[in-house]
Model the fold of this input.
Amino acid sequence: MPAHSQKIRSFFAFEIPESAREWIARHIIAPLKEVPAAVKWVERQNIHLTVRFLGEVEPKVLRKLVDTVRNEWEDIGVINLTLGETGYFGRNYPRVIWVGLNGEIEKLERVHDFLERTCRKTGLGSDDKKFAPHITIGRVKSPAQTGKLIAAMKKIEIEPVEIKFSEMVLFKSTLTPEGPIYEALEHFAL
Done:
């Protein structure tokens, strides 16, 4: 992990296997890109499942968090999931386009709850949002044409593509004009 004193934008996540990322890119994102809506689509290599976003964190605090996670980690075992329906977050119009998950959701919730307790314990505070496991695939930039986007989402037929998680990753996120760059800092076996 970096030893510098500059804050690190970071999050805990599960990496989506390449076969599932490829399926999402080809069978969900590609058809939705045909809709003339202003959406910033997630690059295939960046598709992941965020369990806990940390934000900008001092390296010393991040080190303490990593040590606490390592020392208190609960053995959960492999998490078996499949892709679920597409959906979106947003009140007046879709803002975040996502793919849901089916399967061992309770294991994901256990990981999230553990991270919440650990974040509070290390002084990072709580995430007020209810945990809703999903894979973000796009961020809507304008409400124009979102009706067509929703209609296109409803037409997509999702296959139950299998996803197995055997480790969680702490990522550093560097924002660039071209999009975020993710760097794995730590790995935690389930």
About this structure: The chain has a mean pLDDT of 94. The chain has one domain: 8-189. Residues 24 and 106 are 23 Å apart (CA to CA).
